[in-house]
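Q: What would this chain look like folded?
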Amino acid sequence: MSNILLAALIGIPLAWHLGLTAITYYDAERVGMEPRKKWVAITFCIPLFGFFIYLFERSELDYDPDEDPYRGNNFNIHPSRADDAPLRSRGDDRPDPDAEWDGDWEETTESSESDEWGTQRGEWGERDDETDDSR
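A: My prediction, written as structure tokens:
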């Protein structure tokens, strides 16, 4: 292998690595991420990923709640989906969204045989579907 190719294969990534470490060194003090040597050590010891760790931590310092476009809004719903009812999951004990509301929610206390989350039926180690005596 020629010396020029070896220098390029080793020198270019090493120059990038030292350059990213130098950027971290100068930027950490300007942004106020103390101690600066900690961030330089992270960037130097964990090549490339350490620099991204630094960038992600640095971006958290720039948060201004007055400029946050999502502050006060839980989520946005597309107008075409605004009238969709949520899907009920298995074992869901929430009231039916399509039912008429009379001002008070009724809690369901009865459990069916297919209710997986119902009352305790069997002893420890028994499966609920094996309690049938016909076997």
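Residues 55 and 83 are 41 Å apart (CA to CA).
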